[in-house]
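Protocol check, entry for the methods section draft. Step 1: assemble the input record (protein sequence plus ligand SMILES). Step 2: submit for complex structure prediction. Step 3: store the structure tokens unaltered in the notebook. Ligand used here: S-adenosylmethionine. Step 1 record:
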Amino acid sequence: MGEFYIVNPLIERYLNDLFPVRDKVLKEMEELAERRGFPIIGPVVGRFLYQLVMVSRARRIFEMGSGFGYSAYWFAKALGDGGVVVCTELSEENVYLAREFFRKGGVEKKIRLYTGDAIEVLDGLNEEFDIIFNDIDKEYYPLVVDRAYNKLKHGGLFISDNVLWSGRILNESDSSPATRGIREFTKILLSHKGFITSVVPIRDGISLSIKV
Ligand SMILES: C[S@@+](CC[C@H](N)C(=O)[O-])C[C@H]1O[C@@H](n2cnc3c(N)ncnc32)[C@H](O)[C@@H]1O
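Step 3, stored output:
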């Protein structure tokens, strides 16, 4: 069994086309992602994250693997005044681009941006968050579960992208570090006593865990 779409591409396109016109900066980021083949969460998941910020009334968000800022931009737009998204990204070029997009979209006051390893940054902060969003290299996912648990407030949300990994998790002969990382991560997460977790099969699969 090889790779496949979790959501039928026709359904994905149908939903994307129904979405109201997004702001210019989001559109620009989507076009850049398309040109570069860069994996962003896209508008369907972006809107879902936006709703999660609203229902949870989150004010403090930690993002692991910010790329050039697309998912953080959705978070920042959903946050009220005084809210913050702490972004982390390994690539200096992505950080540079993200800063530009945040400035253009007028959300820079809600952003704290670190260039470096998300796990190290999280370990080094003595702060609690309402939401932790995880989108780093997949082989490191298992290392994130307990760390996220420790840095979330009670009732906080731990969200991870790509947990269905284009179906590769089902392919027994796929033992790449990324695929193994996702399998192990999902197993740990679903049996974690401190989280109640659902896997939502939109786009490439999102895990949504509440700290109990
Ligand atoms: C899938 S992309 C992120 C896309 C972004 N979340 C979005 O949807 O707009 C993953 C990003 O995480 C970065 N990354 C991978 N491992 C990381 C780590 N350990 N710490 C920080 N950034 C990391 C990569 O450089 C890449 O830009």
